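Hypothesis: this fold can be encoded by more than one sequence.
Test: take the structure tokens below, design a sequence, compare later.
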């Protein structure tokens, strides 16, 4: 028994000794490691491979022999085992390690340029309010070679320093506390020289809110971004109301914008919105997107990669229902909360809410292929649906008027007479409070009529299109029946204002821009000039910012 205890004690002692020995790890090299190397930034900026950074290259090869390094930037080859190299120009380079007599290995390395990053220190309350909130800027600039830095700040008109003086330019790293006398996106530009070399400009857009709640109008710029503008009618003297840049592309042809439940919905038929032969049904490129009210989030509601004529052109939202019209067939209804849907007419979710052939107007007011334009639904449940080809005018119906199946020829007893019969009306709005209708007639201009006159076919006729507010000739983007024209109007029911985007015809003397019909003066005013706009929409919830 004592012998057994002695053996066990000796065994445990030996195991403890073995456990205390620090053995070097044994590396297993594979054939691919015959020639190998690694690299890392040496110094403060260990994560970034920047112009001017010291990069330590290390030979990890199993093969032995003289090392020859080619860094791929035209510099002389280096005969060292672990050289340090700096790149003077940003780009992607091929680094080659040659072990004389053994072979070569090539790897790519990406060298980034140095640029300044501009940011704002946290603001109390999170909102920068016009002529009130002060901000402080900060800049981060990697400087691996500790070179001399020159900063020049460029500020927009109305930027004030802490002493109340306007400052448009400041040389130095810290311009101090600043505030703004104008509303909207305030673009700050930082020009930087590092060791005498001009770097990419740092740009910061500061959203400056109004000092009291106001509605927000959104508009889609042709070839540009979605923009937002505070609707302010009592702007203090000396203060400018500039738009906010949401930093989100408008799309190809954003014909309609609809604001609903804190989201801006964009209806875009895509690049190809005019007639095209699409026998295989594969040329669709339209979409519906949902953008958060402040531009912080963009979601895809629906995309179409099937038939081009199924692309979404115009939209309307009521409750949870989102309606969109295609080119010339009908209107589809889906749930507005749905996301990432792929339009497929074989899917029951995308069955038509109404088709041309399911209203008694078919071949008795409009014909096959009648082109769709704007639509809306009045408080009494009546839909107004504009057509611009193969039957021009505004066609009305209630959901109970939609037939259960398609017909070939319209029957007697059409739901209602055609309104503005024979007129190309791409957009209109109905002010039910003031009993007025506003509409744009192609090649003529913007008109108005009382609701009672407009709904009386004997009052609005070819010889009497209504009361002309202003003659406006829009651009001719598109073809016959497809002209984009003034593609959307937005009504502010509180004051009766009507907003729309105007893209001028080259021969027109009226400049393009965001327009407003002022019901007090009975005139159309320019809100923003020299910008081409498609869809417009209003968020009627008042806020200082969005």
């Amino acid at each position: 028994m004592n012998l057994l205890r002695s053996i066990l004690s000796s065994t445990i002692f030996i195991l403890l000794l073995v456990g205390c020995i620090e053995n070097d790890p044994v590396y297993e090299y594979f054939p691919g490691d015959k020639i190998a190397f690694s690299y890392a930034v040496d110094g403060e900026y260990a994560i970034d491979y920047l112009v001017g950074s010291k990069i330590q290259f290390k030979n990890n090869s199993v093969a032995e022999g003289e090392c020859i390094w080619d860094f791929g930037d035209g510099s002389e080859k280096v005969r060292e085992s672990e050289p340090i190299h700096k790149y003077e120009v940003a780009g992607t380079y091929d680094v080659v390690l040659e072990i004389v007599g053994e072979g070569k290995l090539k790897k790519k390395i990406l060298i980034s340029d140095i640029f300044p990053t501009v940011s704002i220190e946290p603001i109390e309350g999170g909102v920068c309010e016009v002529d009130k909130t002060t901000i402080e800027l900060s800049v981060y600039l990697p400087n691996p070679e500790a070179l001399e830095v020159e900063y020049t700040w460029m500020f927009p008109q109305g930027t004030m320093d802490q002493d109340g003086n306007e400052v448009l330019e400041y040389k130095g790293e810290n311009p101090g506390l600043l505030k703004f006398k104008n509303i909207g996106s305030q673009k700050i530009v930082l020009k930087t020289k590092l060791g005498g070399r001009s770097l990419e400009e740092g740009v910061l857009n500061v959203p400056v809110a109004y000092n009291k709640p106001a509605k927000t109008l959104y508009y889609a710029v042709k070839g540009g971004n979605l923009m937002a503008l505070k609707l302010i009618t009592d702007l203090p003297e000396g203060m400018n109301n500039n738009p906010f840049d949401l930093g989100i592309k408008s799309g190809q042809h954003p014909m309609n914008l609809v604001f609903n439940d804190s989201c801006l919905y964009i209806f875009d038929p895509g690049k190809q919105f005019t007639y095209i032969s699409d026998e295989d049904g594969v040329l669709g490129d339209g979409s519906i997107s949902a953008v958060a009210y402040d531009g912080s989030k963009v979601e895809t509601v629906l995309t179409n990669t099937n038939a081009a004529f199924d692309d979404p052109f115009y939209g309307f939202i009521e409750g949870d229902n989102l309606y969109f019209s295609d080119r010339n067939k009908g209107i589809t209804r889906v749930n507005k909360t749905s996301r990432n849907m792929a339009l497929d007419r074989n899917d029951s979710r995308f069955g038509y809410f109404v088709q041309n052939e399911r209203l008694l107007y078919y071949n008795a007011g409009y014909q096959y292929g009648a082109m769709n334009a704007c639509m809306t639904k009045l408080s009494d449940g009546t839909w107004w649906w504009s057509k611009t080809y193969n039957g021009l005018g505004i066609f009305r119906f209630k959901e109970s008027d939609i037939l259960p199946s398609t017909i070939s020829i319209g029957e007697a007893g059409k739901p209602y007479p055609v309104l503005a019969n024979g007129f190309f009306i791409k957009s209109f709005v109905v002010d039910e409070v003031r009993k007025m209708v506003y509409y744009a007639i192609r090649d003529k201009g913007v008109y108005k009529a009382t609701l009672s006159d407009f709904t009386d076919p004997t009052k609005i006729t070819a010889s009497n299109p209504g009361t002309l507010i202003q003659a406006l000739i829009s651009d001719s983007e598109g073809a016959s029946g497809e002209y984009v024209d003034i593609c959307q109007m937005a009504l502010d029911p509180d004051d009766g204002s009507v907003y729309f985007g105007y893209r001028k015809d080259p021969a027109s003397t009226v400049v393009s821009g965001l327009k407003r019909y002022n019901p007090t003066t009975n005139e159309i005013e320019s809100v923003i000039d020299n910008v081409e706009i498609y869809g417009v929409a209003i968020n009627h919830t008042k806020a200082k910012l969005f």
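Confidence is low (pLDDT under 50) at residues 1-31. The chain is about 5% helix and 40% strand.
Hypothesis status: open.
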